[in-house]
Amino acid sequence: MSVQKTGLYAALLIFIVASPFVFPTFGVQLGTLWLMIIVAMTWDMTGGQMGYNSLGNIFFYGTGMYVAALISIALVYDVGEYTGASGGGRYDFTDAQYFTGFVLGTIGAGIFCALSAFVIGYVTFGLRGPYFAIGTLGVAIAAGELVSNWDWVGGGQGITLPVYPGDLDEGKIFIYFAYAITGVLLFIFLNWLYKTRFGAAINAIRDDEEKAEAMGVHTMRYKLVTWAMSAFFIGVAGGISAFQLISFEPLESAYQTINLGIFMVVCVLLGGKGTLWGPIIGAILFQIFKEVTWNYFLGWQWVALGALIVVTVVYFQDGLMGWLRTTRPEWFGLTVDERDDDAPQTAAAAGEGAK
Length: 355
Known about the structure:
The protein is mostly helical and 355 residues long.
């Protein structure tokens, strides 16, 4: 790694650590920004790097929320009683119980979602193109409806988790660093993964799956593992979100296919599919755009979002990173050969003279 790149990463790390203290009034927004970065990077693992555009990754986010909540509750109380299915009551958590539930719940959410990806993938990866996207969307919608009618997990009223055992501002910082650590670990993991043989294999699936299969690549195995790894991290992010929101319900908060399920795709399209930094840059730009429109253009925010999508698809089909790679190749260490337009003619003339 070059000295310049090392310095850049060090500066970014310092900024990440200092952000919640430098901008204390934006603690929630900073945490949400990290959530957008995580879901964008996880979506790009299958949509950008492997070429399978999913509209159902929100399934893992919502499932992660519920699994984390249920594990946290089950460590201390009976879940059915806590959610009100078998009666109400007052339920208190000690500090140790809260943090133990948080750690085990988020990790358990990631593992459960990864295993779910294997099971669902055996069915959905038999589909391709728009059929795969619609199939995964159907899974997410069905899961939301199923959970909303399941009384044991709270049904349509959802679940309420214990509040952070401390100052409210400390709780925001805690959630921020939970997101940030997850995002940084995901970035480090993907930065390594995309340089390995595994990364080359999933890129081969994206470019031409039949040819990759003919060359000996076990495409189904790579697709399942990739989706499982993606599901793990988005499940962890969902688990953190459960503790951030404290109270959430299935359709509007957990399995929000219209909101977060679409936002993660827009982030990747905006930044650039199939790149390491594209989803990150796209998530940052999208979150800034969303905060501005949601605060200053209330009532028109969805119109503004639609306009952003149209502009991105029409004028920046390769995203910001693709546009910069074309217009500023030197920034990426690429060189463009500049040849004299008369050179081919001169060479042809020289050939004729040689004859």
